[in-house]
Amino acid sequence: MAFLADVLSRVKPSATILMTQKARELKASGVDVISLSVGEPDFDTPAHIKQAGIDAINRNETRYPPVSGIVPLREAIAKKFKRENGLDYKPSQTIVATGGKHILYNALLATLNPGDEVVIPRPYWVSYPEMVGLCGGTAVFAETRMEDGFKLQAAELERVLTPKTKWIILNSPSNPSGAAYSRTEMKALTDVLLRYPDVHVLTDDIYEHLTYGDFEFVTPAQVEPALYERTLTMNGVSKGYAMTGWRIGYAAGPEKLIKAMDFVQGQQTSGATTIAQWAAVAALEGPQDHLGTFRAAFQKRRDLVVSMLNQTRGLTCPTPEGAFYVYPSCAETIGKRTEGGKVIETDEDFVTELLMAEGVAAVHGSAFGLGPNLRISYATSDAVLEEACRRIQRFCGSLR
After folding, report:
1. Do 20 and 53 fall within a single domain?
2. How far is CA 54 from the centre of its chain?
């Protein structure tokens, strides 16, 4: 009798975590490594949020929380959705979990049966298909093109929907491409979904506050109110509030689904850390000034990286609307040789040789379902990004 579950053989490890760990190991061994593989802001958590966590400790807010989250946080979440997205949710329609990933996993675990399909546009965040597989569902991939900004088109969505489709996962702005849907683009997708009443929408809005220029963020239930009863709107404090390590994600949706997720979570974690929840209350209800500072810094970095990568031989880099990633194509480097004689046959070869030759860690696009590309995070300083891009230019220039 096998000891480990068969389901583990169908799940791949996270490529982003693996590359980040590889970069850490090389750095620890003395190699000069610049890691552009990690998906978290390099800013500190704003002071008033940290103070709220400290105050919670001093008030002894250290007991078991309600499974779905403390009442003040669920009330703050409902207010946030009304204030920023025009969505009316009661606190009882909200839930708090240990990160956005936990929200997504609980929703899938509470709803998927064997044979149920989940549509995932690619490129996708590496965890989506693996979570679907762990929860017994089948991931069905919808194709996007760089010419369309890596955004799902209505005709392609219609093509992949079947009577077995239970969910579509939409992530805007996107990890890994940074692509974000305008109101018109989102409406084209919701118009399709209106014709499929059994399909539910799981929208990952974790990068909501990181959009640039005059781009206006929208979420599906806001664009099409008729989808309200079959949409789970997920968000969290990790990216916009630089709180990745606090591990707080949240969502709002139909009360029946929220109760099912509460049931699942009650047998898993029993609820997110109380101290982090009180900090999240301060994040949602306190000053939002830092968001403008974050956005200005990230937009400047985005423009720097896009410009330098588009000046790099063999790379083509679109300008994304949000998040803190770019997703350049390295198609023109495939088939070329490194100075050491290694043939670049895949985008994984490209990022591996780049790391070995120049000490720059990026993640291969095939890990996100679409290559030959690479994901580069620009969540680090201008000086570090300039040096990293110079190294990438040198590496690409050396290929023959």
Report:
1. no
2. 28
Distance from C-alpha of 396 to C-alpha of 400, rounded to nearest angstrom: 9
Three-class SS state of 374: strand
Q: What is the pLDDT averaged over residues 178-188?
A: 98
Determine how β-strand 138-143 pairs with β-strand 117-122: parallel
> Is the pLDDT at 365 greater than 90, yes or no?
yes
CATH number at residue 383: 3.90.1150.10
Domain that holds residue 335: 7-38+290-398
Q: In whole angstroms, give the CA distance from residue 101 to residue 198.
A: 24
Q: Give the helix/strand (H/E) hosting 375.
A: strand 374-377
Closest CA to 333 of 259, 286, 395: 395
Pick the closest to residue 122 from 101, 99, 153, 100 (CA basis): 153
Q: Say if residue 194 is in the same domain as residue 119.
A: yes
- pTM for this prediction: 0.95
The b/e string for 103-126 (b: 16+ C-beta within 10 A; e otherwise) is bbbbbbbbbbeeebbbbbbbbbbb
**What is residue 19's predicted lDDT score, i.e. its pLDDT?**
79
Alpha helices in the chain (DSSP H): 15-28, 47-58, 71-85, 100-111, 127-134, 154-160, 183-193, 220-223, 255-266, 274-285, 289-310, 347-358, 382-398
Asked if the model's pLDDT at residue 29 lies above 90, the reply is no
Whether residue 362 contacts residue 333, with contact meaning beta carbons closer than 8 Å, is answered with: no
The predicted pLDDT at position 171 comes to 98
Whole-number CA gyration radius for the chain: 21
Strands 374-377 and 325-326 turn out to be antiparallel
Alpha-carbon span 335 to 74, nearest angstrom = 53
One-letter identity of residue 285: E
In a shared domain, residues 18 and 81: no
| Rounded Cα–Cα distance for residues 21 and 86 (Å) | 40
- Nearest Cα residue to 90 out of 308, 241, 259: 259
- 247 with 310, same domain: the answer is no
Euclidean distance between CA atoms 184 and 166, whole angstroms: 24
Residue 265 pLDDT grade (very low, low, confident, very high; cuts 50, 70, 90): very high
According to DSSP, residue 248 is labeled -
User: Of 246, 267, 285, which closes a domain?
Assistant: 285
